Structures are given as structure tokens and as C-alpha cells.
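Weekly modeling sync, notes
Attendees: S.R. (lead), two postdocs, one rotation student

Agenda item 3: backlog of single-chain predictions. S.R. asked that every request posted to the team notebook include the full sequence so nobody has to chase files. The rotation student volunteered to paste the first one in as an example of the format we agreed on. Action items at the bottom.

Example entry:
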Amino acid sequence: MRRVWVAALVLAAGCASAPIKKADMVELATADAKVHEGCYDCLLAARNTYARIAVGKARPLVIGRLFETELLIAVREKALALPSDETIARARSLVPDLPPGYSADRLFALVDAILPYDIGTPNSELIQLRRPRAAYVRTIDGEIAWLASSPLTPVVSQSLTLAIDCAYPFRTPPAGQPRRPPGWRPQAPPDAPPLIRFGVANCGNPIFADLEKLRADVPSFIDAAVFLLRLGLVTARDDGGRNVKERFTEVYARFSNSPAVTYLGGNYYQIIGDCREGLRYYDETIALKPVHERALLGRTICLTYLKRQQDAIAAATRMIELKTFNVSEAYYWRAWNHHFLKDLPQARRDIESAKAIAASGEIFTLAGIIEHDQDDLAVAEKDLKSARQAAYGNRNCTAAWYLGLVGMKRQQWLESSDWFLGAMTCYEQNVAESETGLAQMQAKTDLDPDFKARQIANFEAALKEDRGQFHAAAFNAANQGARGGDFARAKTLIEVAAKDPALADLVKQLRTFLAGKDSARRP
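Predicted structure, as returned to the notebook:
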């Protein structure tokens, strides 16, 4: 189709009353190539060229391309979670001048049915957008068939087809046609232009290699880097997200007005343990989308880690007032902060609200801790056991520790000793895993230095805490065992506890007690 356009323009230029200047013809060819390149800035550049030339006698020859490009820009803005209202308004203003056959209303309905990028859009907003579009979904296959025969430029028709098809890939098929298999995705021919390659690579689960190749082929395709950024976060906790920091810096410089980009920035910095920086981008996301539930939660968690308890409580309260889809987590974190501030009644109310909405190991663990602290031991035991069951391989050291404390408060000495013994084994496994993780992290040479230093510090802090808990659990298991009359267990475990100098005085006292028992048993 580009060849047809150029040929028509050349013929027109040969006439005395040529509506398009020769210089403009060259710019139009460049604009056509920009559309095929397909990046957001490419489309903007093409749109600006078409708009400048689409005046006077040249308008009827260019207006169609200008209209089509506005539609492509609107679709891309949705893909980037950018506002598209102004773009749609510009496209609507062109409708009176379009040649017959464009069926603008059908095209606007199609673009309207494409939802904005979920990571940058509040869940509540997506729900509101989906409801009135449910009926349209049943017509998509017919609209795709119509697109194939529409007067749209083929590459534009193909791009819009990909956009609407991939927006609802597993919709109910027309009568007599089979459902698509799980994992279905469209294929791009080898000579497909970048505009189409982007649509294919970003259909459903984005394909990292294809997006990277596209970015390499079209360096200005910064919008592809947005999706590479999200994919890079998958391993960020382990490797700091190779190239993620540089990629984020680049996409943020271009798309700082995208709540998807700002949220991914906040999420990235939270994942790598820099909540102070993460908070900045969560705040920017909320400024763009005040009810962005994921950003509100990320902000609450980061405020908690930064020990800004009152601010964290206020942030969680905001989520609760909004009744966000993740409100159970808001109740959890508000309970966590109230417990930290020793406001047990409010912490209990919040964790009860969390339990009423969702069941998770984290919720049951905190509930058990709060209930233990309030001496509601029967409920604490139930919740802590639920927490243990929810953990893979019962690896919930905190729940085991508190079950030991529950048994101790009940003076169930041997049962308490058993739970502390379980906690001891759990902490020992944590220590072994952290030692391995620390050694691996220290050996890595291809990581961001700041991330590596932060991770090493985190491993060292975890090791110090878990080793301390391991020895303390050994002492408690020994102590409760001695109280319950299992002196053999106590003697074995006290030697483990004795390896921690911080427990020296307590170990000495228990050894004296055990020695006294030995002496009393001698004839």
C-alpha cells in the first residue's frame, strides 16, 4: 500500500495544479515508513507530518492516513497506560473530511473496547471499563473480518486486528468454531514490519527475546522497553534485575506520565530493598491514578519498612476506605503497624477483618502473635497451626516459635519443648539457605554494586537473626524439656544453646538446675 500511495503522489506532482509539493511527497514517504516502524514516537512523528500536509487541496489525499495514525496512537497510548482522550478527540474531528467507506463509528468502538495496560490501571477502573463492553466482545470476530476488507491501509488494519484480538484472546468463538488452545498466540511473518512485530510479541504474555530484537532493530522503540522492564522484574529479587535500572531510567525519562512506568519503578526499588526510592515512584503513580491499588499497597509496605508507622497506618486506612480489591492486605499491614506500636485491641480488630476476607500464612501468623500477646491462647494455637499448614513443608519458623510460647503460657512444658525444637530445626534450615545464598551473592561479578552490597547486608542480617533464634529455640526447648522432666533432652539441647555467648547466663542457670537434679537422683 505504501507503493500505491507514493505512485499516486508522483502522478499528481506531474500536473500543473499538483495538490502536494515534491518536498512534501518525500516527507510523506518518510511518515509512511515511520508508521511501519511503529514505535510511539514514530507514530507521533508521522501524525505531525500528515497533519501539516493535510491542508487545502492535499487534505483529501492525506486525511485518511492522518486518521488511521491517530487510531494507532490511541491504541498505543492504552498499551502504555497513557491518556488517550485527546488523541481520540482529534481523530473524531477528522471524520467529516474522511472519504466514504471508513465506518468511523465501528473503528472508534473497536478502539474503545481495547482496555488500558492493567499494570498502570486501577483494578476498580478496569472493572468499570469491562462491564459496558461485554456485549461488544461477542462481535469481535465479525469486526476482525470487516477490518480485512475495510479501506484501511493493510498494515493499519493488521495492527488494529492484533490489538483487539489479543485484548480478548480466549473469548467465546462463533458457533461451529473451536476454542483456542491455552497458550495460543498469533504469528508474524518474517518480513513483518516492526509495528506488527510489536503487536505479536506483546500479545498475551510478552516474549522477551522478540521485544529485545525489536528494540535492537528500532532503537527509538522505547515503548517496547516498558514491557521488557516488567519482564525483568521477575528475577530482580535474585539478580537485581539485569539492565532493569538502566531500562527504567530510559523509559521513565520518556514516559514519566505513565502510571505503568512509575508503578514498575516503585515495584523495582521495593524488590531490591530500596523502599526510600520506591516510595517516590509509588507516590507519583498515585498522583496519576489516585486509586491505583497496587501502588497504594506498595506505598503502605514501604512506609512500614521505613518505620513510619503512623504514615503506614494512614496509607492502609485509605485503602480500607476505598475498599480496594486487596483490602485484606491493607488490614494486615494496618494490624502489623498497630501491633508494632503495641496497640493490641486495634491490631486484633484489623487482623480479624483480614481473616474474614482472606486466608494466608502471613495473616494467620500475625493473628496468632496478636492473640498470644492478648492471652487468647486457644485461638492463637488454632491460627498458628493454620499458619504452619499454609507454609511449604511447614517452614514457618515464627509460627512454631509462638506455638512454643503458647505451650509455655499454658505450662504444657513438653509440648512447648516440642514446638521450640521444631522452631530450632526451621531456623537451622534458614541459616543453611542464607549461608548458601550469601556465598553465591559474594561470588557474583555481574551485578549492580549497590544491589550486591545491599543483598550481602541483608543475608548477613538474616544470618545473625536466624542464628540467634536457632540458639534461643534450643535453649527454650531445653528449658521446657527440663520443666517437663525430660532431662536427657535438656542436657543435649543446652549444649547447642551454649554456643551462643549471649545466652551464657541463662545456660549457666539451667546447667546448675540440671546438675541439682542429677545430684538428687544419686543414692
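Discussion: group reviewed the output briefly. The two ends are 107 Å apart (CA to CA).
Action items: rotation student to repeat for the remaining queue; S.R. to check formatting next week.
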